[in-house]
Design brief:
It is a single chain. Helices cover about 35% and strands about 25% of the residues. It contains 11 helices and 13 strands. The radius of gyration is 24 Å and the shape is elongated. Bound molecules: adenosine-5'-diphosphate and magnesium ion (MG). The site of magnesium ion has 5 residues, from helix 1.
């Protein structure tokens, strides 16, 4: 279990993380979602003690990272930047980490197998593709067989097969009862991978909820209507408080009104319907809705 309480981190004038509080519970995959520059990596660095917070506390199973003995066996982490020694082979890199944490050398070959790098274990890691580098980073996070694992943007650079592999790996780790936190700016991937979401924008907490709740909170659900002639229906919808937009193909998209009432107004106006479809907001739309005020200006993102 990870407990973040009032975490604040500044870089000079810039507030990267602004007083955020959340828990990451064991037994499920928690997605840490936010646009680029929203403070995900900073938060994760604070959780594993690489960044010193300006305010607030972080506890992993009740302890701060600095108080953990053999931290690699308590918290495994893949951070965004690749932290391998360029000249080392994958096996040597992991053996070095294992030795530093008193982890049995046998575990190195086990994790190389787990991430599918056994065949290239003795090749220099600086010749690795981005995807292979990510697999090596994941191997490092798994090395200590820790009950808590963090992955910062682990699917970056992975091919579709690799993305499915990471997804199944994370679900498996959660099913074993581990605490699993994965950050991403990719909504669609989060929808498939996470059970629970922590959403941030501009360093502030925007949502702490299940994927399902998050989508319904954003309430951008709408109703798609196709009719033989829609003029009267359109007028009735607007008169009854709906927002109506026209699709290029003549269909209407109705907001702020449920499908039953749209159907009733269609009957009232003797409109022949060809289609009446309630549409659920996708995670992507929910995210855009909730974070639209917190997207950084492009110039700031580039900094
Ligand atoms: N070492 C640093 N020095 C100065 N600013 C930083 C540093 N690390 C991050 N930032 C800034 O803090 C904000 C949050 O960054 P980050 O945590 O990397 O966001 P994310 O991982 O969500 O993309 C950004 O505006 C970023 O530019
Ligand atoms: Mg990041």
């Amino acid at each position: 279990m990870i407990q973040v309480r009032g975490l604040t981190k500044r870089y000079g004038e810039k507030v990267a993380v602004d007083n955020i509080t959340f828990d990451v519970l064991p037994g499920r995959v928690t997605g840490f979602l936010g646009p680029n520059g929203s403070g995900k990596s900073t938060t994760m660095r604070a959780i594993i003690g690489l960044d010193r917070p300006d305010a607030g506390t972080v506890r992993v199973n009740g302890q701060s990272y600095h108080d953990l003995e053999a931290p690699l066996t308590k918290v495994g982490a893949l951070l965004e930047a690749r932290a391998t020694h360029p000249g080392r082979s994958a096996r040597n890199h992991l053996a070095f980490l294992a030795a530093a944490s008193g982890i049995d050398r046998k575990r190195v070959d086990e994790v190389l197998g787990l991430v599918g790098l056994s065949d290239v274990a003795d090749k220099r890691a600086n010749n690795f593709s981005l995807g292979m580098g990510q697999r090596l980073g994941i191997a490092g996070a798994l090395l200590g067989d820790a009950p808590t694992v963090l992955f910062d943007e682990p699917v970056n650079g992975l091919d579709p097969e690799g993305i499915i592999w990471v997804r199944n790996l994370l679900k498996g780790l959660a099913q074993e009862g581990r605490t699993v936190l994965i950050s991403s700016h990719l909504m669609a991937e989060m929808a498939l991978t996470a059970d629970h979401l922590i959403v941030i924008g501009r360093g502030r907490l925007i949502a702490d909820s299940s994927v399902e709740e998050f989508v319904s909170t954003a309430s951008t659900d709408d109703v798609l209507v196709r009719a033989r002639v829609s003029t009267d229906l359109r007028t009735a919808l607007i008169a009854n408080g709906a927002l109506v937009t026209d699709e290029p193909d003549g269909a209407l998209v109705v907001r702020r009104m449920g499908v039953e009432e749209v159907g009733r107004l269609a009957a009232d106006t003797r409109t022949v319907l060809h289609e009446l479809t309630p549409r659920r907001a996708s995670l992507e739309e929910a995210f855009m809705e909730l974070t639209k005020d917190s997207l950084e200006y492009t110039a700031q993102v580039a900094s």
